[in-house]
Structure formats: structure tokens, C-alpha cells
Amino acid sequence: MGTTFTKIASVSVGVLGASSIDFSSIPSTYTDLCVKISARDLAASGSLYVCVNGTTQTNQTMRRLEGSGSAASSDSQSSIFFPIDGSSQTSNTFANTEIYIPNYAGSTNKSMSIDNVTENNATQAFADLIAALWSQTTAINRLNFQCNSSFVQYSTATLYGVSKS
Amino acid sequence: MASTYEPIATQTLGSAQATVTFSSISGTYTDLVLVATAASASGEPTISFQLNGDTGTNYSRTLLIGNGTTGTSERASSSTQGRISNSTGLTTTLGANATIAQFMNYSNSTTYKTVLARSNTTLYATEAIVNLWRNTAAITSIALFTNSGVNFAAGSIFTLYGIKAA
Q1: A133 touches chain B (CB under 8 A)
Q2: Where are the domains of chain B?
């Protein structure tokens, strides 16, 4: 039986930084997609924004459960985003994220399971559990990730395809 | 490179169905991962499970739930079912829920079994659930059903993967 957790593409940000991380022309030959991201924003307060089949955030919703180190909270948003490390956080720390998208090439709306943590040697760091939805029935063929400023060097993202056969 | 993440079986429901069962699960893997994109025929039920046909009060669970307003935690013990998606987990809309569950060290015959799950329905909540099955037997079958007894909707997809440590 063949390997079913297959690397489709990987990005490692170089010394000049990157305004976005883009996975385009994603084939529809897998069952699910999984993206693993280690990222840091040049901005003081970092955020990562998920764009599907383009570079804008449309037809998105999410519900989030977040722990900050001192409290747990929950909110709803009309776009998919979450905190990542920025320049205000401890140097050389990166947020780590897994985004799992089942049935990404199917004909129903696309739900996502997102787990995210930031790192910081201080009282505040975030852990996020996110239910996200892209309310479109077309197959996902592009995932574009943006941040508040630019992704710093050594930020990485790897896209995997998971196949049920 | 050796294959360490292998599909065991997938079930795509051609019609509404009350129970989805993965049986005769081989003990050759280290962990199991179940991925579900399911909907209900009516209401907003759970995705519940029983292992090896055990209907006894041998299941317990702790939940973290974010409903978009508050974060809460729930606990159930001596239950007759585990859950990988809690109440209001499913909707009648296909594609509205993504659930991923991990059956840890499922094939050993020494320890009780832990099942970690993440269920995501933007209409209602995001959930993290840890289940315990108080039984040392290797898991050889997983039966999935809803707590209210309603069917899973046609088009629901359940896929079971096996993960090998080496």
C-alpha cells in the first residue's frame, strides 16, 4: 500500500522575508489537505490570514476557542485569521499551526480544523482551537497565507496531501 | 521511505445510515486516525462511538468548547459512549463539520485507551475532546452513531487511517 501523507510543496522564507506564502495549482487528486506552518511576522503584533482560491478573504467564517495564558475566551469572525509571533514576542520564536481540510476537492462547503500556538517567554502566549469554514463548493486549488507585515526568514510552510486510497 | 500513514477503510454513505462501523481493524499500526465530514439527517446530534461492541458504562470524557461567545468545559463519566463530536456537533448540511479523532496506542493489550478528538462546526462551536475507554483490549472495531439515534446523512464520509511508528 502506498504512502498517503504526501508532501505537495514546501516554502522556506529567505533572508529578504516574504509578503505571503502561496500554494497554487493544488491538484485535486488527494482526499484531504494538511498544512503545517511555522511562522513569525515582522510586525510587532503578528497575525496569519488564510485566503482560499485567491488572495482575498471572502466567504469565510470561523469560531475560535483561545487561551491566552491567563484566560479562555471564544469568538466568531467573518474571516479566518489567528495570532502568530511578531517582533514584540521573544526573539527567534515562531508560531506553529496545523490546518486540516477534509474533502477539499468535494462539492460541498469546505470545513477546516485549525490548531495554533504562539510562543513567548512572557506571561501572554496564545493557544487557539478554530473551526473554520470556506462557504464555497468549488474545489480548493490555492491556499495563500498573509500576515500583517511580512513573514520573517526561517518561516516555513509545508502542504501535504492525504489520500484515502 | 516506509509508508507510515495508510488508509485502512473509507465509507461514503450512499443513503442515510444510523451506524457506521469499522471492523476487523488490524493491530499492525501504532495509532489510528479517523477523519469525518459528516452531516445528520435531522437535528444537531453528536458523533458518538463504541469500541469493540462495548455498551457498558466504560467511557468518560472531558471537553473544551468554544461556541463563539464563551469557552466552557464539560465532563461525563461512566458513560455508555465516547464522543468525537459533542452535542450540536453536526448539522444537516454536508461540509459544515470537520472532525478528526486519534485513537492512541490502540492495539496494546495492557492500558486503557485514549481517544483525542477535534470537532469543528462554524455554525455552533469548535471542540476538543479527550475520551477514555476503560478497557485494556486492543481496539478491533469502531462503531459510530449519533446520540439522538438519527441517521448520518447520505454523502457523509468517514475514513480510517493507520499510523506506524516505524
Answers
A1: yes
A2: 5-135+142-163
Q: Could you tell me the three cell numbers for B160?
A: 480510517
Q: Is the pLDDT of residue B107 over 70?
A: yes
Q: Which CATH number fits domain A5-162: 2.40.10, 2.60.120, 2.50.20, 3.90.25?
A: 2.60.120
Q: Where are the domains of chain A?
A: 5-162
ipTM entry = 0.93
Q: Give me B122's grid cell.
A: 462554524
Per-residue confidence (pLDDT) for residue B4, from 0 to 100: 80
B76 contacts chain A (CB < 8 A): no
How far lies B149's CA from each of A64, B18, B41, B57, B72, in Å? 29, 7, 10, 18, 26
- pTM metric for this prediction: 0.95
3-state SS of B45-90 is: CCEEEEECCCCCCCEEEEEEEECCCCEEEEEEEEECCEEEECCCCC
pLDDT of residue A89: 97
- Decide if pLDDT at A2 tops 60: no
Q: CB contacts < 8 Å between A and B, how many?
A: 131
Question: What tens digit of pLDDT does each residue of A105-139 get?
Answer: 999 999 999 999 999 999 999 999 999 999 999 99
* Residues of chain B with C-beta less than 8 angstroms from the C-beta of A32: 35
Q: Residue B9: what pLDDT? A: 96
Cβ-Cβ contacts under 8 Å, A61 against chain B: 122
Report H helices in A8-165.
none
Nearest to A110 among B6, B36, B95 (CB): B95
